[in-house]
Design brief:
Layout: E1 14-17, H1 27-32, E2 39-45, H2 57-64, E3 70-76, H3 84-90, E4 94-98, H4 105-114, E5 118-123, E6 141-145, H5 160-173, E7 181-185, H6 193-199, E8 203-206, H7 208-211, H8 215-230
Parallel strand pairs: 1-8, 2-3, 3-4, 4-5, 5-6, 6-7, 7-8
């Protein structure tokens, strides 16, 4: 890429380990292992919007006391407005809903802000950025899915680098660059994260890449990549 993109969104460069890849039998301990990460990414799946079931608000609430980090809740559920209040009460800081799952996306984003949380919108790989153009002024973050959602451990879809870049340019054109974070989720690892942040992302979700091996060391390695890119 010809130009180095150093926007860093509104929160700088962030690693958000996905606890979907953690050992569920000792979830609280797994959260404590990544205390150097800025965010905890919580994947909520309902078995309808995606073909898998994961955490409910009760489970998330049970680990909230294990961490003071930002809880970034990715709601892969049909009509998420039905559950937003429960997750806000359980300790969510960011509530991210899928554009494809919301009948009235604008109203859902307003609902999130009314609950005192940051509002984010996610897009599946095949969904156009145009689907969210008219709500970008109401979001704190956009999540670009770089795999088809529902399961961890998938391979990054290369074409999503162009989509990230186009989102960055769209935000810049609208005067929102630096005010809206760009998060990327799916198949991001140490070998390709540089390309993802070069495209314009500043919040990186990583599941297997953190929890396979030593989580503390893997988080540190992601931070080293961020520092190298900024220097």
């Amino acid at each position: 890429m010809a130009e180095k993109r150093l926007g860093g969104g509104k929160t700088g460069y962030v690693i958000a380990p996905s606890i979907l890849s953690a050992d569920f039998s000792k979830l609280g301990e797994c959260v404590k292992q990544i205390k150097e990460a800025e965010y905890i990414h919580v994947d909520v799946m309902d078995g309808a919007f995606v073909p898998n079931i994961s955490f409910g608000a009760g489970v998330m609430g049970s680990i909230r006391s294990c961490s003071k980090q930002i809880f970034d809740v990715h709601m892969m559920v049909e009509e998420p407005g039905r559950y937003l209040a429960d997750f806000a009460k359980a300790g969510a800081d960011i509530l991210c809903v899928h554009a494809e799952a919301c009948r009235h996306l604008d109203r859902t984003l307003e609902q999130i802000h009314e609950l005192g949380c940051r509002a984010a919108v996610a897009l599946n790989p095949a969904t156009s950025l145009e689907n969210i153009r008219w709500v970008l002024n109401k979001v704190d973050m956009v999540l670009i899915m770089s795999v088809n959602p529902g399961f961890g451990g998938q391979q990054f879809i290369p074409g999503m680098l162009e989509k990230i870049s186009q989102l960055y340019d769209m935000l810049e054109t609208m005067g929102l660059q630096g005010k809206v974070d760009i998060e990327v989720d799916g198949g991001v690892k140490l070998s390709n994260v540089s390309s993802v942040i070069e495209a314009g992302a500043n919040i990186i979700v990583a599941g297997s890449a953190v929890y396979q091996g030593t989580p503390q060391e893997n988080v540190k390695r992601f931070h080293q990549v961020f520092e190298e890119y900024c220097n």
